[in-house]
Amino acid sequence: MEIAIVGLGLIGGSVCKALKKNTFHHIMGLDADGEVCRKALDSGAIDEIITADGLNDADMTMLCLYPETIVEFVRQHKDKFKPGSIVTDSCGVKEYVVTRCTEVLEPLGVIFVGSHPMAGREFSGFDYSTDDLFKGASYIITPSENTPKMAIDLLSTLACCMGFGKVVTATPKQHDINIAFTSQLAHVVSNAYVKSPSLFNADGFSAGSFMDLTRVAKLNEYMWSSLFLCNKEALLFELNTIIDNLCEYRDAIGDDDIERLRDILRDGRERKEKSNELYAEHARRKV
């Protein structure tokens, strides 16, 4: 199969490397940076450098770009995609992208299926891409009502070939609601947490909890600001929820209300324990 990867950064580069390592597909690469394309070719991550005109040869195209850039690229090059081919993406918001891209490509006989590889690093760019970035990670597919089953099955197969440990199917809206909590909120909280003036006095006073909470504070502000604004309704709900919860902790501490504080802490602990049990049960059912 001829597969085109548009955008050879951390995710796009890792997709290329994983496919080259684990499959016999012909991998074509396209990136705005010619030096990155040459690096990908020289390293063996891709078989061929193409321009947008080369998309007509692709049976599948994966767009590894920011949300707005994906939509812009599809609109600009809609006539370059081969009719009957599958186009997917890798970005972290789905309703914004799937709605707009399907609207453009479906009338042309091109199948758009949203997808989201749940993997990453604190670094960006092709130089940090690896052939095992996706090992054991989740791959989320967000089909539309008219998405053919064969397109979903093909993406699922490729995901397994790339090393993903779990393939999850959800609607674009379900994806965005869940991701606002599991990923986007975590990045906001981590980034806000390190703005304390105490950050630069933490050396020698920190352990695992500090490292866990601050790891994703080192983010790509261009990508994450785009993701946040494309999913702002769901993210604002989560932000308002955590702000309300933090106010409860603050008020209980400020009032020296130890019983209230214990209740709040107990509630959080019990919720975490319940979620652990739930996820463990789901895992047992799949064995």
From TrEMBL:
The superkingdom of the source organism is Bacteria
InterPro entries, per database record: 6-PGluconate_DH-like_C_sf, NAD(P)-bd_dom_sf, PDH_C, PDH_N, Preph/Arog_dehydrog, Prephen_DH
Pathway(s) of this molecule: Amino-acid biosynthesis
Known Gene3D superfamilies for this protein? 6-phosphogluconate dehydrogenase C-terminal like domain, NAD(P)-binding Rossmann-like Domain
Classification via SUPFAM superfamilies: 6-phosphogluconate dehydrogenase C-terminal domain-like, NAD(P)-binding Rossmann-fold domains
Q: List, in alphabetical order, the GO biological process terms annotated in this UniProt record.
A: tyrosine biosynthetic process
A Pfam family hit: PDH_N
Q: Does the keyword Endoplasmic reticulum apply?
A: no
Report a single Gene Ontology molecular function.
Answer: prephenate dehydrogenase (NADP+) activity
The Prephenate/arogenate dehydrogenase domain sits at 1-283
Instruction: List its EC numbers.
Output: 1.3.1.12
Which keywords does the record carry?
A: Oxidoreductase
**What family classification does the UniProt entry report for this protein?**
Belongs to the prephenate/arogenate dehydrogenase family.
The name under which this protein is listed is Prephenate dehydrogenase
